[in-house]
């Protein structure tokens, strides 16, 4: 970033990096991973660090060192059709196919489900459907 970058652009990049390393499931998953790993805790932590920290850093370095300004121009180095398919698949998985339902599920499991009974299927169905509609 140059010295003339505005505070808002620095804040946007900062929030983007925070969201990249701390997703919706990273609040619950490390605790569950520690509970379920048992004697293999070191191996489980190593796998979580590689996939939760290492891969995002590799993505940042790949885009920074490529000199390209966006994902489609980076992927078009392989093939233009690959760039289109990959970009569409990535944006769909980031939004409506994976991240939005997962965020809704984590919010539901932590904030609403503890107050419901085990047999409240309508409420679960409502929140699953609302994750796709909103």
TrEMBL record:
A GO term from the CC aspect: plasma membrane
The record ties this protein, via InterPro entries, to: Brnchd-chn_aa_trnsp_Livcs
Gene Ontology BP annotations:
isoleucine transport; L-leucine transport
Pfam families to which the protein is assigned, alphabetical: Branch_AA_trans
UniProt keyword Membrane present: yes
Q: Where are the transmembrane segments?
A: 6-29, 41-66, 78-100
Tell me, in one coarse class, where this protein mainly resides.
membrane
Its placement in the membrane is given as: Multi-pass membrane protein
Q: Where in the cell is it found?
A: Cell membrane
Keyword Coiled coil in annotation: no
Keywords, A to Z, come to: Amino-acid transport, Cell membrane, Membrane, Transmembrane, Transmembrane helix, Transport
Summarize the protein's role. Component of the transport system for branched-chain amino acids.
Q: Which family does it belong to?
A: Belongs to the branched chain amino acid transporter family.
The protein here is known as: Branched-chain amino acid transport system carrier protein
Provide the species name: Halalkalibacter akibai (strain ATCC 43226 / DSM 21942 / CIP 109018 / JCM 9157 / 1139) (Bacillus akibai)
Taxonomic lineage from the root: Bacteria, Bacillati, Bacillota, Bacilli, Bacillales
